[in-house]
Amino acid sequence: MARWSICMLTLATAQLLGIASICRAKDLLDQEYQRTSRISPRFDPEELIKMKEALKGAIQIPTVSLTPGEYNTTALLKFGEFIRKVFPTIFNTSFIQHEVVGNYSHLFTIQGSDPSLQPYMLMAHIDVVPASEEGWEVPPFSGLERDGFINGRGTLDNKHSLMAILQALEFLLIRNYIPRRSFFIALGHDEEVYGENGAKKISALLQTRGVQLAFLVDEGSFILDGIISILKEPIAMIAVSEKGILNLMLQVNMMPGHSSAPPDETSIGILAAAVSRLEQTPMPNVFKDETLKTTLQLLAKEFPFPIDVILNNLWLFWPLVSRVIEMNPVANAFIRTTTALTMFNAGIKVNSIPSVAQATVNLRVHPSQTVEEVLEFVKNTVDDDRVQIHVLKAFNPQPASPFDDQALGYQLLHQTIQSVFPELHIIVPGICIANTDSRHFRNLTTSLYRFTPIYIQSEAFNRIHGVNEKISIQNYETQVKFMFELIQNADIEQTDVHHLHDL
Ligand SMILES: [Zn+2]
């Protein structure tokens, strides 16, 4: 018995040593590959000028989406011609296939040299939300450069990402880069209006081809600089989950009448009271959310006593911590389903009581809840049978993608952040509080990551979909560098992901 045990132990040890030496050999091979094939992310002055001029050109094409199916089709077609002209190498490389999907979206398939490596996907979108000139310092589709910034609609959402991905690939190809791992670049044309004709069609097309992705990277989170006020340092937040949507229309129908003899209650009064109750009754905050717990525990290391103790003992201090988080509207959105009253319509004449009053409510559903739970909460809060509740649009939040040591996409992003932004000490998983096209690709992968490698402050956050959207040239150059590095980092083998930090 003892001898048998010793034999087994010896055998196991030998096997472990064997596996270890194979791993070691693979590591060395991989490190050798990284050392010999690595292309340095250095761009000459002429390339830097080309890079920013290309972004300006992209901003000048007004690829505006208004409603699903209602886009500036002339601009979208022009954009297709524009990328062909600006990135000729991408369009003339034998191992890259380009397809137009849904008339205006673009899909690139970049064939890697090693078919044993599972492909991944980089995403961005072509369309932008509308912008009138009112309130802008420069015309929103001018792409004007001023004080080190490129100005215009799409500079933060999301043409900078689109151009950075293509620009990085163009520069890599010019330097004779041949990828080892295959990848896709998916550029949707209707993300701002739910992506049903762009990203969703690309996803369906790839599904018919039997494609499964190792991971994908889309927009949706940033390097947050000063947004969480108690943090002195910026933090890189890789969003591993995404909120859902519940758009509601609340309606009250009452008898119309003359304003000289008003009834006790009118449609306007009843509806106003109902939406006010909704606004005054926030959804519960979400202590049970695992991503949030991990984020706060990782942040704990960055704080001195006693904040580190508080963050490490959330079971006790959660009421206190949540109160601090709730003070900032952006931070508050990370811990609960939010309720926003966005439209209110009733009445046409000063002396008549309208029969109908309508209000729309936009709820962003936290990953710890479902649409059904939120709808139930709304019904209970309104608590008035005279208020009809109609669902206009609803989809559930995206569950958390893996972010452990074995999660290839997360670790590649983590490592690339560390190398491109050595000054950053805090990299955490987080939640995307808006919506992205990435949700359409859940049929191809469960590893969806949302991260844009640029610094963003509260002020810049408000410029997204607002006025005076702009990106610093320095931020954009670093974004191109990041994509240049990320594409190369993805060429390592999946089994070696946990050794990334050694590279
Ligand atoms: Zn966007």
Biggest sheet: strand arrangement: 3-4-8-5-9-19
Separation of the first and last Cα atoms: 45 Å
Please count the helical segments: 15
**Low-confidence spans:** 1-25, 498-503
Helix content: 25-40%
The molecules bound to the chains, other than polymers, are: zinc ion
Mean pLDDT: 89
Classify the beta-strand content into a percent band: 15-25%
**Overall number of strands:** 21
Task: Give the second-level CATH assignment, the architecture of the domain at 45-219 and 433-502.
Answer: 3-Layer(aba) Sandwich
Based on CA atoms alone, the radius of gyration comes out at: 26 Å
CATH-derived topology of the domain at 45-219 and 433-502: Aminopeptidase
Classify the secondary structure makeup into a structural class: alpha/beta
* CATH homologous superfamily placement of the domain at 45-219 and 433-502: Zn peptidases
Sheet having the most strands = 6 strands, mixed
* CA-based shape: globular
Q: Quickly name the level 1 CATH class of the domain at 45-219 and 433-502.
A: Alpha Beta
